[in-house]
Amino acid sequence: MTNDSSLSTVVVVRNPQGLHARPADMLVRLANQFDSTIKIGKGSEHVDCKSILSLLTLGAAAGTELSISAFGSDADAAIQAIVELFEAGFHEMNDEE
Amino acid sequence: MVELQGIPVSPGVAIGPALVLDADGYRIPRCLVAADDAEDEYARLSQAVDFVSARLETNRLETSAAAGNSTGDIFAAQLQMLHDPRLHAELGRRIRDDHQSAPYAVSRVLNNYATALRRLDNPLLADRAEDVLDIEKQLLFELGAVTRQPLADLSEPVIVLAHGLSPSETANLDRRYVRGFCTETGGPGGHTAIVAKGLELPAVVGIGPFLDSVNSAGTVIVDGDRGRVIIDPDEQVLCEYRKRLADRRSLTARLAELKDLPAETADGLKLQLSANIEFPSEAEGCLQRGADGIGLYRTEFLYLASEREPSEEDHYEAYSQVVREMDGRPVVIRTLDLGADKMGKRPHAEYEHNPSLGLRSIRLSLRNSNLFRPQLRAILRAAVLGDIRIMFPLITTIGELRQARMLLNVVAEDLQDSGVPYRSDIPVGMMVEVPAAVVMLDVFAREVDFFSIGTNDLAQYTLAVDRSNEYVANLYQSCDPAVLRLIAHSIEVANANNIPISVCGEMSSNPARALLLIGMGVRCLSVPPSALHRLKKAIRSVTSEQCRQIAERVMKLETAKDVDLYLLDRLEALVPELVVS
Q: Which of A64, B208, B421, B573 is most buried by a 10 A CB count?
């Protein structure tokens, strides 16, 4: 018997500058707090959410829809935390003058 | 002998041995290790990663302490890249399975990532490619594959041949040894071109791929007048160019003798001849060449030269240095004239589909008053030291001008309240570089103290041509009759309202075009310091009536080409010394 579960959802990149270095760094840090395998995808391309270089090469500009899927014991919490981070626009919107 | 054609962006001739930089300034050859040594090779890589990691962490802490966390985070992201699990998986596979040397694996994998980022066609992510390559370079250094920066520690004259050079790389070239440069990429309107001209380094850009066929030891001639680069010239060509170099030097020496004479025509029409600068250190040279003032101080490099945003003190120091140096002569400071396209890694940089029509220049400043205020404060404070004037770029509507002036007043009140010395009565001017501003110039004339025509942008917006776009750059002609009519109209309105008007774009630095502008009624010209002597020579060689006749004839011509040919013809007749053979 395993508690592992697989979950997926869709998020939208809200911060105006897209998924550039700073948000990607935040996302990787967050993903690393979970044991689950987390994938993030644009169209048919799915990459490891714990790899900043993969995230950057997705080239996700503002408005891009991304699919998030997680597999593992804490998949639920991982998805929830990631969705919150995207919804908060990576806390970047407040920096804009 | 190989002859290449590119875009001439900075005039002059340079001859010297080639220093070839490949795309990233170094090249790692394909190299394999014995299967038995693969594990040791991987251990060597791990150790290099540890060293680089420690250095990045130090950078992060020191930068955060000095410039705040958001700047320090640049290194946090680099650290994240260095420890990327996919990166290590790929490096491990190449070293352990394919038996590649650590330097070769590092170079291949990181270059692939950089290429992938550049291909996304997003300026913000293209800059991340630089971060990736920076990590590559640091790893290669730790692995002993790169020993030094090729452009540091030069000890003999060289001509730099590179894929591309950034404006800051160009600015940092060691002027004692670098005689000129040529690059595969680049265009006539780029900042690299402006810097090269400012530094008086003969330069040819946009040649297209050629580095692979160059032997690094050969002699190279850079002909910045014609956009020609000659690699391994034969004796005859070399002799010809050596003679041109000698002729140029003697002409330069003769022109330099004019420096203390006024810029006035043979019949006594006095003109104001000022200089355009980017760096405070250029002011001294302007004075030595007899400039009447600084007609255009471009402040962009304060923003581009450093990773962090310039503080009020950074601005103040730069402006104070220039105004002190100019010793009472006027200094026109143009506020930030950058767009999202050129802000690089700055937090204000946003990706725009069409940056030339986007959030740039005064629009960017008005949207980001935290960026704008320190600059305005510094200008008002430095104005205590001399004749400083402020000029706003890319003003398109009267509302923008009023908003900018209002912010200036608010800043002045702040300074007053906090008891900081400043001058509130400094002349306020605007650039005329958008057709809308020309059309409405009579309205603007009631609210400014001076105008300055920026011919580069005016031509770009009149002709709907982005001059940095290689597909249409050939359509960009500052002597297009449409542009000339807008300039003529501007001069007429300015003169009718008694508002001084100058021309500070590239157009005025060409002696023949300068004579045309004088004929059209312009009395103030501002040009790169390197053009001051040539321009003075041209002005002193003609009468105001000859200039007027040139303008009268030109305004009847129908194409830019006709204008250019006619102007060249007149210059040849009136000031033959200045026509380069």
A: A64
